[in-house]
Write a structure and sequence with these properties.
The model has no long low-confidence stretch (mean pLDDT 95). This protein is 34% helix and 24% strand. The protein is globular, with a radius of gyration of 22 Å. By secondary structure, the protein is of the alpha+beta class. The strands form 6 sheets. A 7-stranded mixed beta sheet has the order 8-7-18-19-20-17-21. Helix 1 packs parallel to helix 14 and helix 3 runs antiparallel to helix 4. It has 14 helices and 22 strands. The structure holds uridine-5'-diphosphate.
């Protein structure tokens, strides 16, 4: 019998499976897809180029705990992500920074703005674009509105199907205006890519004789959450071990209160008979085309290959009826939180459940946040068990 059953073999599920297995517990890891790793999954395409099936993933964290944890399972290639955004036909650094300012505006004007910014904020301050828009100074207001229009508005409309105001701070705050000449996408202390890819790293995470993985398995067929008795059944029999839920809660409870909305993406992968396609890993197209960005994998993986593969991302609304779609981005709006909390209340009736990950928490997590939360969930379990 298993001490612990994990629903979903994405990053959260695999980290928790490893934590319990390393603690001597027998773990069953259930995954409906034909592969582990969730949306971190990468693989070699037909041309032999390592690509990220569900879009570009760059590992970045400030947490020494997280960094040490992942380094136990893979070496990391040092990689600092840089992004250019096409604005009025020019490719400038994104997040918008002082370099972007000088590249787009005449130098006298750029100098005046820089001075005004530095009178107000310290160098290397990250200012959310919404905050910059509330400035009284006409130059700063103009700049804020310019960035809003050319960097945020249309990208966010494409990405989320609504305006930055409707999406709220949690999404757009990830890309602030950066008063700096540091043109990296992230400023985190640790940044990199697992040398042999994410799938390899996650395979190492779950490489433990206490973990039994079942792929292509619908957890609904083996596990049942009985809402009348608040008990869990495994293969038709009462189950008193731990159940770790990393799957969406609406799906777990058969959508009884309705569907939690998500944004999803169509990916268009293209391989070219040329060593490189563009000048940098990612180019954002806030204002043109139906895709948001083009990413060229070889820049982040460091792979040497005579050909190159890129991916274009086309966002759209997630349709749960279409089984080929993936629920990528939880939509951070109050009405969705209210719906999520209704499901959460149902789950709270079950005592032996641990919840973790982007889907189960319905939160727009980075990989680092996912790992932090999974490690935290295990630590909490340990503390509760000692009591
Ligand atoms: N964003 C934008 N313009 C850009 C890049 C990002 O408006 O050029 C906004 C957009 O709303 C996006 C959010 O910032 O959804 C977060 O961007 P990030 O690159 O972190 O998105 P992810 O990689 O998670 O898709």
């Amino acid at each position: 019998m298993f001490d612990c059953i994990v629903l979903g073999a994405g990053l959260a599920g695999c980290v928790l499976a490893e934590r319990f297995a390393s603690d001597g517990k027998r773990v069953l890891l259930l995954e409906k897809k034909e592969h582990i790793g969730g949306t971190c999954y990468d693989f070699y395409d037909k041309s032999g180029i390592l690509v990220h099936k569900y879009g570009p993933h760059i590992f970045n964290t400030d947490s020494e705990t997280v960094w040490k944890y992942v380094n136990r399972f893979s070496d990391f290639r040092i990689y600092h992500h840089r992004v250019l955004g096409v604005i009025e036909g020019k490719k400038v650094p994104v997040p918008f920074n002082l370099e972007s300012l000088y590249q787009l505006f005449p130098s006298t004007y750029a100098e005046r703005i820089e001075t005004k910014l530095l009178n107000k904020y310290a160098m290397n301050t990250k200012v959310p674009i919404m905050e910059l828009q509330n400035q009284d100074d006409p130059d700063l207001k103009y700049l804020a509105n310019y960035i809003y229009e050319y960097v945020f508005l249309h990208y966010t409309k494409k990405q989320w199907g609504m305006s930055p105001e409707e999406v709220g701070g949690t999404a757009t705050a990830r890309i602030p205006f950066y008063i700096s000449r540091d043109d990296r996408y992230f400023q985190n202390r640790y940044q990199g890519i697992p040398v042999n890819g994410y799938t390899d790293m996650i395979n190492h995470i779950i490489d433990n004789e206490n973990i039994h993985v079942l792929l292509k398995t619908d957890y609904h067929k083996v596990i049942e959450f009985d809402q009348l008795t608040h008990t869990i059944k495994f293969m038709g029999l009462p189950y008193t071990g731990k159940v770790i839920v990393t799957v969406p809660l609406d799906e777990l409870f058969d959508f009884c209160f309705g569907h939690l909305p998500y944004r999803t993406l169509d990916f268009k992968f293209e391989t070219f008979n040329t060593e490189y396609f563009q000048e940098i890993c990612t180019v954002n197209y806030p204002n043109n085309y139906d895709f948001t960005r083009i990413t060229e994998f070889k820049y982040m993986t460091g792979q040497v290959h005579p050909q190159t593969t890129i991916v274009k991302e086309f966002p759209k609304q997630y349709d749960w009826k279409d089984k080929s779609q993936e629920p990528y981005y939880p939509i951070p709006q109050e009405k969705n939180t209210i719906l999520y909390n209704k499901y959460r209340t149902l789950l709270d009736e079950f005592s032996n459940v641990i919840l973790s990950g982007r889907l189960a928490d319905y939160k727009y997590y980075t990989m680092s946040e996912t790992i932090t939360n999974a490690l935290g969930a295990f630590d909490k379990y340990c503390v509760d068990n000692i009591k």
